[in-house]
Amino acid sequence: MTRTVLVALPLVVFAIAGLLAPVLAPVDPTAVDLAASLLPPSADHPLGTDQLGRDQLSRILYGAQISLAVTAAVLTISLTVGVITGTIAGYLGGRADRVISRVVDMAVSLPGMLVALAVIGVRGPGVVNLIIAMSLWAWAPYARIARARVAGLRGSPHLDALRLLGASPARVIGRHLLPPALAPCLVYASTDVGSIVLGVATLSFLGLGIPPPYAEWGQMLIEGRPYLASAWWLAYPPGIAITAVVFASNLLGERLAGDDERPSILRWVRPTARRRLADHVPTAAEGDVVLSVQDLSVGYPQRVVAEVSYEVRRGQVLAIVGESGSGKTTSVLAPFGLLDPSAVATGSATLGSGELMGLTPHERRLVNGRRVGVVFQDSLAVLNPLRTIGAHVDEAVRNAGRGGRRAATRRVTEELLRLVGLPDPAALARQFPHQLSGGMRQRVQIAIALAGEPELLVADEPTSALDVTVQAQLLDLLGRLRDELSMSMIVVSHDLAVVSRLADSVAVMYAGRIVESGPLTTVINDPGHPYTRGLLDAVPLPGAVPGTRFRTMPGRPGAGPDDSSGCAFAPRCPIAVTACTNDRPVLKVLTSAATHRSACSRGGA
Amino acid sequence: MRAPGRPRFAGRRVTRWAVDTVGVLLALTAGTFALVLLARGDPAAILAATRAGRSATPEQVEAVRAELGLDAPALVRYARWLADAVTGDFGLSLRTNTPIGPEIADRMGVTLGLVGGSAVVALAVGLAVGIAGAVLGPGLPRGALRGGALLVTSLPVFWLSYLLVLVLALRLGLVPTSGMAGPATWVMPMAVLGLPAAGALSRVVAVTLREALDRPYVLAAQARGSGWISIVFRDGLPNAAGPILSLSGITVGSLLVGTVVVEQIFGWPGLGDYFVQAAAARDVPALQASALILGGGFILANRLADVLQVLIDPRSRRDGGVPTPWLRKGTA
């Protein structure tokens, strides 16, 4: 707010100078004194004198007066005509609206400067003609803005009620439609002040605006033109005055319109400090581990994922399950830098033996697309609508260093499309994303992910939003790829049925933490955490008698990992005791299997 | 980009567009012709005086009036004027008593050269600064680019020219102050005309490109290992092309109008200069002719950008969404 006021300051100075010019000006701006011509700034003449010995400061102040007067007149006329025209068009609707809108469209599309010049060209210069010429095009944007606002309001129940109560159209328009239509117009006017001041100065500069002996900023520049090189005080002050007013007006308009300030996903990412955990001890099985994530936290800056650790072994599928908002997707995308730029990720993630956290964008490109492939959830949004399927896959093939000449790259592309079970790859490659079904697009994503022959495939909800048969086909495809290419996978899903068909091990997430992890069969048959048990109970079993009610979990899904000091699941937990809300449980190895862990302080109860 | 359905579909849209454009151009001619009705003073008297070299006698004025057909009703005169204008005949200048058409044809080249050159400056600088604005995170460099862009659009062109003349020509002696003789004289007019347009363009490029780069397909491109250059040029810019194209059209159009000021300052004998001379002398036929050409160019530049926008988006093609040949073959 303070900054907005600061931005508007030159406009305020402009208004005050314009209004109080006769009081503020030290001398008469038209008083010629040839003996005192072209004097540099001094105590008598703070901004010097011009070629006729006129005081520059007084002329600048009177210049503000004339600019302000013309601007005020043009704005008053344009606002009145524009807002009334637009409001009437919006209120009447139908044919009248179409005709008026058409006229407004044309007026808006005309070059304002040209219209003003042409009108002054036939009418001759002068203050009145200048105001007419500038109002002739300045009204149209206001009409457009007001029309849009009123047309939006016309159908509102509030107005219907007013009409039923017998309010006359004049009253409805005057009291209930004009004021809201005026508000956005005033915002636009804040920028328009600049355009009008600039227009007046430009026309005067061309000798077609305000004629001498009036002091006008553009006029002052053209009159002083022959002396500009030697008398800098003639060259700078009028130009600075115009620029300050126009700049402030543009800046104010931009601020009032609320311009977008966010950085894009794609920005030059500064690598964050690398951090390896001191107590990370390599285990015997490490050679077998493809991806190891330790103590991963992600915050914006409030944490959404806290101290998550998981491992993926060669040729194995790890499933991460949990409800929406539990941090599943963030946990699997964070190691590869695929997060919002405002996210802060800490912890460690190693792929093979290389640390992934804190890689530079260039280093990331050697991992993403080559050693890791990613399949996203929304297959329509993640494909560029303006590029063909072939262009997407070609790019992935080239990124992975498997491309060659165009035809060679395309051959690899077609091979990949065939591999994921898409018929007629040559024709498909020429299609655009919107021409494919959801299942086919998902296969295309898998083909893109496979382009680099990756060690690890990350699939984020790969089958959500697809119908059941297509889901089954895709799961079969993923299973086949794992077997044939002995590829490791992470599958993120909220659907335990999906997980149970594919996974070797499972990690269950709740409120940004892993609450249970272990081999699939152990977790399903002998869940250690009450949340996992709840999830399993919520799945309808194929053998169940029709009409059997499956249990759902009461309560609302948990929020962030740091929202409570105890167990995040406690408010919904059927077996919670008072202690659960005080101390946060940690993952403990359960007796059933060495790799089966659960974070419940009530043990295996 | 070469789908078979495009020409037929786009054909319909382009026809509509063409009809619309002709309508707007007709409105422009009507507005331009109406200038005569607004004019102060009798055109016949002015032309007669020009011919006689002094105040004309009433007989001379009547002769000119008959010759120009000024006695006919306004609508008839409009029809005649329009029919002549289409063939490039704009009548006689009141100021010089010479045909306007050839004069405009002569000056057209200068203006088109100036607009073309400054369009290159505007588009190149505007795109580069806009891309930097979208890719850079918040910080000093981005703030400086934004502020600079806004400042350069706020500078009055004539003052910017003076400053450049003072510094580059008079103080440093790098380029001549005015005229158009060789590449050195082209630098200042094109910079002065192109840079403010570049400032406005860069703001729109930055905002729309940032929006296009916020979409999931950018994340997916990063996941498959594409670099930022590829992402900006293959994913970002094409998806931001709509608003950028339409503003580019407006930009080129506004450059055409801007020649009015720049040609004055640097003494280039182009259309803008002709327009100002005609306006200063109240030479209505010349004013009409140049307003028609400049205004028509402005409108065409705007509308061409709109039609290009339709042509580049595959989603707006006729076969969008319907089952495609390979699918029918595949399932058969």
From TrEMBL, chain A:
Domain ABC transmembrane type-1: 64-253
Residue span, ABC transporter domain: 284-536
Superkingdom field: Bacteria
Membrane-spanning segments: 66-92, 99-120, 126-145, 185-210, 230-252
Signal peptide start-end: none
Subcellular location: Cell membrane; Membrane
Membrane topology field: Multi-pass membrane protein; Peripheral membrane protein
GO cellular component assignments: plasma membrane
Primary location: membrane
Protein family according to the UniProt entry: Belongs to the ABC transporter superfamily.
Protein name as catalogued: Dipeptide/oligopeptide/nickel ABC transporter ATP-binding protein
Annotated organism of origin: Acrocarpospora corrugata
